Amino acid sequence: MKAVHPEQIIDNSRFRSFHFSIIFWCFFIILMDGYDVVIYGSVVPSLIEEWNISSVTAGAIGSYTAAGTAVGAVLFGLLADKLGRKNVILLCTVLFSLFTALSAFAAGPTMFTVFRVIAGLGLGGVMPNVIALSTEYAPKKIRAAMVSFIFCGYSIGAIAAALFSKSILPSLGWQPIFWIAGLPLLLIPFIAKSLPESASFLLAKGKEEKLRELLQRIDPETTLDESTTFEKPEPAKKGLPLLKLFEKKRAISTIMFWISCFSCFVLIYAMNTWLPKLMIEAGYSLSSSLVFVAMMNVGAIVGTIIFGRLADKWGFKKVMVPLYIIGAVALASIGLTQNLILAYLLIGMIGAASVGVQNISNAFVSQYYPPSMRSTGVGAAMAFGRVGGIFAPTFVGILLTMNMSSQVNFTVIAMAAVLGGVAILFVQEKHAHYNREGESYHGDDKTKEVV
């Protein structure tokens, strides 16, 4: 009787239509996630004027939303390992799409905040599960590039939010921008039909026939019949799932991932919430400032595609640390120039060093942990990162009340990039799952005999 290791079949598979379908739908979901996150920053100046609220209050609304995403990242990260990643992705997509669309009907800041916090639960929960699912099914040789590319969808969504806001705000107001966020609700049946369930989840639940069908689609050249059995993972040990992230000498790396993710989210939420306002303070118009949001995310896309591929070749640390440093220098420098082209270039570099680094980090974290705790590991890192998302909007709102120069404001924000770079330096790759895989299966053989 032969026993097949599902993870090895996936690792050695060629890119097929199966993988394209995962990329397409995960890309779309993350695109709408990015759109939903960034639209608030795009309409903040309008809401401040319409509802007569202060910068601190506007920042607090962004922080409350980020708090919802932190809770969602932990809650749905844990639930996915029990209920299945596909089911949780569908639930989270419905949550963030529905309640972001409902935000358009809020009559004031209180109801608006309630809707945004509930949407935040879905926004926080969908991302770690998309990361875990796409990581699990990506061929090993293109895994980092594939996961990083999917998360370019976040930046595409952010660009769409900025451009739609630029064109719609002056004539139709801010509400239609939020209505667009309901689009995924119409596509849920197609997403449910196209996305596969996690292979490790199917195996753990004893659904071997379904797993056999999936693996046959991934690698048609592999013969899997009724006599084929699967190597099952070790039974989960009792105890809190989060504590397992600190076992087997992973403690230091887990903490460093959390600090790095915190730093990234400080940069991302500071820029997504306040970049238009910061650029207005620096002397640009609202219309020009929304273009800066788009340029930041163009930089994120270019950085993700180029450096995500380099991470597969050079290793994550050799790519992420220099990107963090570049981001810090660009942030500290942007307040020194009034040259529009140079400002666009610097903003693009900031995008690569914030959203771009986080996209690469998603692939790093998801590969560092074994499949049995992948959603928990990614969810925990992103949940801690969301603390940075909670902190940043209110902090920058307070910073703006101090009437300091734009250069000082940007330099203070740049310190987060320095912290993130230092944290990644201390990640211990020798304890990563991808350096322990030989313990699970041996060589390039897709099967091994069971006596």
Describe what this molecule looks like in 3D.
54% of the residues are buried. This protein has 451 residues and is mainly alpha-helical. The protein has helices at 6-11, 17-51, 55-83, 85-102, 109-137, 143-150, 152-172, 175-179, 183-194, 199-204, 208-218, 241-244, 251-281, 286-314, 316-334, 340-368, 374-400, 406-425, and strands at residues 2-4, 229-230, 447-449. Strands 2-1-3 form a 3-stranded mixed β-sheet. It has 18 helices and 3 strands. The termini are close together. Helix 5 (109-137) runs antiparallel to helix 17 and helix 14 (286-314) runs antiparallel to helix 15.
Quaternary structure type: single chain
Q: Count all strands and give the number.
A: 3
**In whole angstroms, how far apart are the ends?**
8 Å
Please state the overall shape, judged from the principal axes of the Cα atoms.
globular
Characterize the biggest β-sheet: 3 strands, mixed
Relative strand content: under 5%
SS-derived structural category: mainly alpha
Order of helices and strands: EHHHHHHHHHHHEHHHHHHHE
Q: Give the strand line-up of the largest sheet.
A: 2-1-3
How big is the Rg? Answer: 22 Å
The chain-level mean pLDDT equals: 82
User: Which residue ranges are poorly predicted, with pLDDT under 50 across at least 5 consecutive positions?
Assistant: 438-451
Q: Helical proportion?
A: over 70%
Number of helices: 18
